[in-house]
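Q: We require from you a single protein entry containing the residue sequence and its fold in token form, and nothing else.
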Amino acid sequence: MYVSEIEKILEVSSLSIDFLSEKETVSAVDNISFCISKGEIVALVGESGCGKSVTCLSLARLVDETAGRYSNGEIKFYDKDTVLNVLNLPQNKLRKIRGEKIAYIFQEPSTSLNPVMKIGEQLAENVLAHNKDDDLDVEAEVISLLKLVGIPEPEKRLNSYPCHFSGGMQQRVMIAIALAGNPEILVADEPTTSLDVTIQAQIIELFREIKDKKGMAILLVTHNLGIVADIADRVIVMYAGHIVESCSKQEIFTVPLHPYTRALLKAIPRLGRGRVRLESIPGVFHNYGKEYGGCRFADRCSLKKSLTKAESEICMRKVPEDRMIIPGHKCKCHHVHV
């Protein structure tokens, strides 16, 4: 899927984020670029520690700037005839971006909700923060949001506390809070990780319904490729701070190009294959404190076994470019060809 200038609502260009310590500077996100268009669901996948959450937080400039810094790049929101560069906005304008342009749902709803405030109060607080209409019926709006996310008998649940809700219901409340500002992009950072499989399916179906009703884009962060296959339109694969592959959902499963993407797919258990030994990725995860001049996946790459010595040396000393291998299908690898 190509993202046209008309459709595009978010564009990240050459973004790099470093974290600082007394001894070293760690490049957690390194020169990444991607776009999100209106009404699409983009899945951001990769193993723990690859930079998914930092990437998402950066979109609304939520990375703690006392510990990290935006060392390069741009994050642009397309607002009708205006282009807003998040990294240059003052705090008062950033507050309008947060909640109204982009809203977040995190993986642990129990830690995101205030345990001593009623659900109705927490929702009302967000409704009022994003709506200045003096004639607004706040309670009716709160009830409408709870209905939208599938909370039964919402009129009776306004006075409930978070502890009265199950994990799945708490996540629905968090989704309602995120929708209070009617954002254009909903960022869901591993929203189903702490939920059982049945509730996961319900939350994913809820995202689909919200996208259809509201027409908003969703950036879904996950390491579960089953969820990706079910709901995503496009997929972005990250490894050690790099985007190594991006394409449509269909192509990620039918023609995966990057060796890391192929390795992830081989590690998925499949029904009907009997007892099959799952393949693991050899080696250890990238050491962020070590200086790398080349591909961050090179030490673990299965493709290297078939390369000549000269070709392998390129992997170790030169960072691969993000190349368009197939129309709409990018891959960050020196040696991948169709």
